[in-house]
Design brief:
The chain is an alpha/beta fold and 322 residues long. The protein is built from twelve helices and ten strands. This is Bug family tripartite tricarboxylate transporter substrate binding protein.
Amino acid sequence: MNKHLYRALAALCLSVTSLAALAAYPDRPIRLEVGFPPGTGPDIVAREVGMQLGKQIGHTVVVENKSGAGGQIAAFSVAHAKPDGYTILLGEVGSISIAPETTSKLPYKPLQDFVPITEAVLANFVLVTPANSPYKDLHAFVEGARRSKTSFNMATFGAGTPGHFGAEMLAEAGGFKVEPVHYRSTGDAVQAIIAGQVQGAFLTTAMARPQIIAGRMRGLAITGAQRSGLLPDIPTFAQQGLSSVDFGAWFAFLAPAGTPTDRLDTLNKQIRQALRQQEVSDTLKGDGFDIIGSSRADMDKLMRSEQRKWAQQVRKTGFRIN
């Protein structure tokens, strides 16, 4: 065979092989780790998006629940996984943006150990009080707290959570003192609110809605830029003059640092497409989530700005877990 023809054929084969390798991803199942138990908000997001993503890419997305330590177990696992695009994390504000400031021995560094794929959804919070509370609106709640001779008790779903520091944020904005009461389970905290054992709490819109509709709680204000479609009668904090009380629980897809850019781009495109599917969108909105589907660059900005914001808030309280 002519040596020039041989070289041309060899180059063509190499080119075809390279293109096939690039087009092959993903060529096997993807593992999606989530740091909370089945049936929780993060798990619902992971499974809804994961199922649709699997249909689009032609390979199963296996959701693994590695619950514990407020999402930190799953985050640690993915941070140290092989950066090949086959192990990803559904991260959230607590383990990614709050934990670095509250936990001195955190076994991973979010801004160094992860690369962003996309912010998937956002859940806002509702300030709720017991149904028999004397406070009918946010103004009355804040005035009552200011006049109180003791600290106002507010339930949280655990120390170091958004609800914990959200209560501190509200107290700072309202000019009163708050005493966070940390419950070990969501159920215990909800029952404490219903029973009137605390003056208030921050619940996600999905969690607050059935309690408010059933008359077991009263909603006073909601975080975020606009009212929730699930609770349209409840005004935002900004509408009531406390615009600084602005926080939410965001959930985002992340990959280990070092994951190839082309694979991150593929995941971003496919996950955003999954979020736009009517069935997925309707289900997640019905569970109180706002659909985001951000670019990788915007998710990177969010991670950095959120860590700065929560670090500032945590430092004001002096709170540390270890």
